[in-house]
Amino acid sequence: MDTADVYRTFAVREARGPYRELAAAIAADPGLIALIDALPQPKRQPNLLLASVRYEGGPATEQDGFRTWAKDHWPQVERTVLTRRTQTNEAGRCASLLPVLAQVEGPLALIEVGASAGLCLQPDRYRYVYDARPPIGRGPVTLTCATEGDPPIPDALPGIAWRAGIDLAPVDVTDPGERRWLECLVWPGEDTRRDRLRQALAIAAENPPRLVEGDATATLPGLVAEAKNHGTVVVYHSALLPYLTPGARDRFVDLVTSLDVRWISNEGTARLPHLKVPDGDRLAFVTALDGVPKALTDPHGSWLNWL
């Protein structure tokens, strides 16, 4: 798939709001596609480019002249693209994780791989509302999730005795520039997501999570050995695998399954092809426990279909 096709597919399959029209317009702009093609292959992804233009002060929509601005300011855009990563840290995914975490005997020792700012390392610090059920937990951040099937929604939040995250470039939640980058990764018009991000970052800044810089395959075994002293070790990740090569993905899966841990994966349906799930017409993640699919879920945690 060439770069124009990547942006076309993004427009059709993933983008919402202004980004749908904008991604299609980028795909039809040979001049901008040529600039993107000159970037290293992992840096050509739509979310990274779109956020980088906004971070540098450019417009967010086609109507406001995004493509012209990006081409006119390409050295600035290129600099940000090359130095930043797509680290969308969506606290809402904790609503997808909670019913699966509830199936693991606690206390829990959590290790998130690809943790970014660690917002999904604090599932016990949010308030959850599933359909018309009574809320679970307390706090300034409320995560709402519509359900299908019969998910095992817990009555209380899990007990978490220990937590740490791994990331190639951990995000410092106390740094205003880092927080602004995460905000630029939220699509325009998604004010609820932006506000939720700000609130979750504020919670994290009060008690910053432990984030270890490093490659997962090199760092994970040592953290697992440490975590075992505190409770049942749960290794989990959301939207991590698209950023790994197929070989690195296979090595990571082989490592996780060789360790004495519970493993929760929350990834797009094509990323772990051995997970057999029903076909659907919605863009969905598969949330699985120890390689067994448990639910189809919204990538941002707004709905889940328990299998």
Describe, in plain words, how this protein is organized in 3D:
The protein is of the alpha/beta class. Helix content is 37%, strand content 19%. Helix 1 packs antiparallel against helix 2 and helix 4 packs across helix 6. Strands 2-3-10-9-8-7-6-1-4-5 form a ten-stranded mixed β-sheet, with helices on both faces. Strand 8 and strand 9 form a beta hairpin. The model has no long low-confidence stretch (mean pLDDT 92). It folds into two domains: 81 residues; 216 residues, Rossmann fold. It contains eleven helices and ten strands. It is globular.
CATH topology of the largest domain: Rossmann fold
SS summary, helix count: 11
Mean pLDDT: 92
User: Which outline best applies?
Assistant: globular
Rg calculated over all Cα atoms: 19 Å
**Could you say which structural class the secondary elements and strand pairing correspond to?**
alpha/beta
Fraction of residues in β-strands: 15-25%
Strand runs, count: 10
Strand order of the largest sheet: 2-3-10-9-8-7-6-1-4-5
CATH architecture of the largest domain: 3-Layer(aba) Sandwich
- Measured between the Cα atoms of the first and last residue, the distance is 32 Å
Question: Residue share in helices?
Answer: 25-40%
Q: What's the CATH class label of the largest domain?
A: Alpha Beta
